[in-house]
Amino acid sequence: CKTLQEKLPGKVSLPGSPVYTSEESTYYSALLSEMKPACRVTPESAKDVSIAMNILTRNQCKFAVRSAGHMPWVGASNIDAPGVTFDMLKMNTVTVSDDRSVVRVGAGSRWGPFYDALDPHNLTVVGARSNTVGFGGYLLGG
């Protein structure tokens, strides 16, 4: 976690910090909220994810990726130390192209804001029933 903190200042939280505590308290499953990663990485861009992944893979660190925290399987959206959890919540943009043929969705997006972004364009898609479910977990089977 020290190397992650050096390379991603302000984007890594440690146990006991307000950000860490806030992020761990919002899981759908109580079992996952009880897991305690060594640190939590909150990337804001693909570059941040790349930097963190290079550090973790080079050091053979286990990790979990959280989109919104609804995935109930142990190790899917949270992990115990010495593992690291990625919380994608800040990568939550939804952009509709000018011709409305493409919608770009950030890995931390949730279905509610996504549907809200489509409404003004008179677009829809089949997706999660709950507005708080994340895109990442839903599309990967959560």
TrEMBL record:
GO-annotated molecular function: FAD binding; oxidoreductase activity
Which SUPFAM superfamilies does the annotation name? FAD-binding/transporter-associated domain-like
Oxidoreductase in keyword set = yes
Q: Can the keyword Isomerase be found in this entry's annotation? A: no
List each copy of the FAD-binding PCMH-type domain by range.
Answer: 33-142
InterPro entries under this entry?
A: FAD-bd_PCMH, FAD-bd_PCMH-like_sf, FAD-bd_PCMH_sub2, FAD-linked_Oxidoreductase, Oxid_FAD_bind_N
Q: Which UniProt keywords are listed? A: FAD, Flavoprotein, Oxidoreductase
* Highest rank taxon of the organism: Eukaryota
The UniProt entry, under PANTHER family, shows: BINDING OXIDOREDUCTASE, PUTATIVE (AFU_ORTHOLOGUE AFUA_1G17690)-RELATED, FAD-BINDING PCMH-TYPE DOMAIN-CONTAINING PROTEIN
The family assignment reads: Belongs to the oxygen-dependent FAD-linked oxidoreductase family.
> What protein is this chain from?
FAD-binding PCMH-type domain-containing protein
What lineage does the source organism belong to? Eukaryota, Fungi, Dikarya, Basidiomycota, Agaricomycotina
